[in-house]
């Protein structure tokens, strides 16, 4: 694994919330150029070490967010995004295995991946 790839993977692993490519560039941009960061994010996602989702937010616009994914056990997290204060809340690691298996059984398809996040109003904003 190249140095850049390691640094990006480590930044994702340590981040408590999903991060955009832009914020990784501002975090690591002194060491690596933007193209390198984008290329490596793509690579890490391809290899199952990162995952991303596209979120439309009134403040940030349409942004792709990346988060760490444990390649050994496939554990990933799901997130809630507040439409008002724009923070992410970690909903913990995915526990949809049963539901996914049920859908596979019901419909006869094979699920290879899923992306799932919630948007709404967080408790601090909902007053
Ligand atoms: Zn909020
Ligand atoms: Zn999941």
What's the architecture in CATH terms? Orthogonal Bundle
Helix fraction bin:
25-40%
- How do the strands of the widest beta sheet line up side by side? 1-3-2
Q: How many domains, in number, for the residues?
A: 1
CATH fold call: Arc Repressor Mutant, subunit A
SS-derived structural category: alpha+beta
The CATH superfamily is identified as Winged helix-like DNA-binding domain superfamily/Winged helix DNA-binding domain
Mean pLDDT, all residues: 91
Taken as a percent bin, the fraction of beta residues is: 25-35%
> How many strand elements?
6
User: How large is the radius of gyration?
Assistant: 16 Å
**Tertiary shape:** globular
Ions, cofactors, ligands: which are bound? zinc ion
Task: Give a structural overview.
By secondary structure, the chain is an alpha+beta fold. It has one domain (3-120): Arc Repressor Mutant, subunit A (Orthogonal Bundle), CATH 1.10.10.10. It has four helices and six strands; from the N terminus they run H-E-H-H-E-E-E-E-H-E. A three-stranded antiparallel sheet has the order 1-3-2. Strands 5-4-6 form a three-stranded mixed sheet, with no helix packed on it. A hairpin with a 5-residue loop joins strand 4 (77-82) and strand 5. The structure holds zinc ion (ZN) (2 copies). Residues 76, 78, 94, 96, 114, 116 line the site of one zinc ion.
Layout of secondary structure:
Layout: H1 3-14, E1 19-20, H2 21-28, H3 34-46, E2 50-57, E3 61-68, E4 77-82, E5 88-93, H4 97-107, E6 117-120
Helix pairs in contact: 1-3, 2-3
One zinc ion binds at residues 76, 78, 94, 96, 114, 116.
């Amino acid at each position: 694994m190249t140095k850049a790839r390691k640094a990006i993977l480590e930044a994702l692993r340590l981040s408590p919330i999903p991060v955009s490519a832009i914020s990784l560039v501002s975090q690591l941009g002194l060491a690596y150029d933007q193209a390198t960061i984008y290329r490596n994010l793509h690579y890490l996602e391809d290899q199952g070490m990162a995952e991303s989702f596209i979120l439309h937010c009134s403040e940030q616009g349409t942004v792709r967010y990346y988060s760490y994914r444990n390649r050994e056990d496939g554990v990933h997290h799901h997130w809630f995004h507040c439409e008002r204060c724009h923070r992410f809340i970690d909903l913990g690691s995915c526990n949809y295995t049963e539901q996914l298996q049920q859908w596979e059984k019901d419909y006869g398809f094979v699920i290879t991946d899923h992306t799932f996040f919630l948007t709404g109003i967080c408790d601090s904003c909902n007053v």
